[in-house]
């Protein structure tokens, strides 16, 4: 019996699934870009917000690091991931250490549909003024001379953001432009997998179908709703908070 499925996102609450939980990688301070010479702390946590028993494993550009603490400090750019004995590998987080005078920072983490805060920072921020924010080369509305702006409902696309500002240099004002920034937008939940309680059901026997996925533990306020289909026809009562559908008895005509 072949079925396919869709998911809809609502709030609040969370449904647990049988998928192994991902580790969570957090940044402190929570910006994915920093100035060269600064330090950023990485914190690895499990889905229950407490570490599982055992060591923590860290990866820098897919190479295992010889550090097994749940918190490390970094000064080198690259992609970082972590895992614990009780979790699968976290999503990769790219941390940039820029030698430039002006940088654009995005608050981390960011998920599909989130509103994200962008911050334009000068190395000497007291002498930085008239900041302006851009998306794909076009100035964002109402973004003149602001320390931070909010970009609403971001998606996983290739949009590039940058900012400009004026730097005071003695009696001169020099315009400076940051490098382009691609906001790291993470998936809200894992690609769902449909499981059946039996791969070879006997006529008249019951069947349980389960839609397995994993919601990010960093978004506990989101409620996943599930719907299962056979040949484009909805099974059961439609959208449900439960990922499981109980079929009392399977018959030949249920094939599809």
UniProtKB/TrEMBL annotation:
The keyword Signal applies. Residues 1-16 form the signal peptide. The keyword Disulfide bond applies. It comes from the Eukaryota. Residues 21-98, 99-182 form the Ig-like domain. PROSITE patterns: IG_LIKE. InterPro entries: Ig-like_dom, Ig-like_dom_sf, Ig-like_fold, Ig_Fc_receptor, Ig_sub. Gene3D superfamilies: Immunoglobulins (2.60.40.10). Keywords: Disulfide bond, Immunoglobulin domain, Repeat, Signal. It holds the Pfam family Ig_2. PANTHER family: FC RECEPTOR-LIKE PROTEIN 3 (PTHR11481:SF93), IMMUNOGLOBULIN FC RECEPTOR (PTHR11481). This is Fc receptor like 3. It comes from Homo sapiens.
């Amino acid at each position: 019996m072949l079925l396919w499925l869709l998911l809809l996102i609502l709030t609040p609450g969370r449904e647990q699934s049988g998928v192994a939980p991902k580790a969570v990688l957090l940044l402190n301070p929570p910006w994915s870009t920093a100035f060269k010479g600064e330090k950023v702390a990485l914190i690895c946590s499990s889905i229950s917000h407490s570490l599982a028993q055992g060591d923590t494993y860290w990866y820098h550009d897919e190479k295992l690091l010889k550090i097994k603490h749940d918190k490390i400090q970094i000064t080198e750019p690259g992609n970082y991931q972590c895992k614990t004995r009780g979790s699968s590998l976290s999503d990769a987080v790219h941390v940039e250490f820029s030698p430039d005078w002006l940088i654009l920072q995005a608050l981390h983490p960011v998920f599909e549909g989130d509103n994200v805060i962008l911050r334009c920072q000068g190395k000497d921020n007291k002498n930085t003024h008239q900041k302006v924010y851009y998306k794909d080369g076009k100035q964002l509305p109402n973004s003149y001379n602001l320390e931070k702006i909010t970009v609403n409902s971001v998606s996983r696309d290739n949009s590039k953001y940058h900012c400009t500002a004026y730097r005071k240099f003695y009696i001169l004002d020099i315009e400076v432009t940051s490098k382009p920034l691609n906001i790291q937008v993470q998936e809200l939940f894992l690609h769902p997998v449909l499981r059946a309680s039996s791969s070879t059901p006997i006529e008249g026997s019951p069947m349980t179908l389960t839609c397995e996925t994993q919601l990010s533990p960093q978004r506990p306020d989101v409620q996943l709703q599930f719907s299962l289909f056979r040949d484009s026809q909805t099974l059961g009562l439609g959208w449900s908070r439960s990922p499981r559908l109980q079929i009392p008895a399977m018959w030949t005509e249920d094939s599809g």
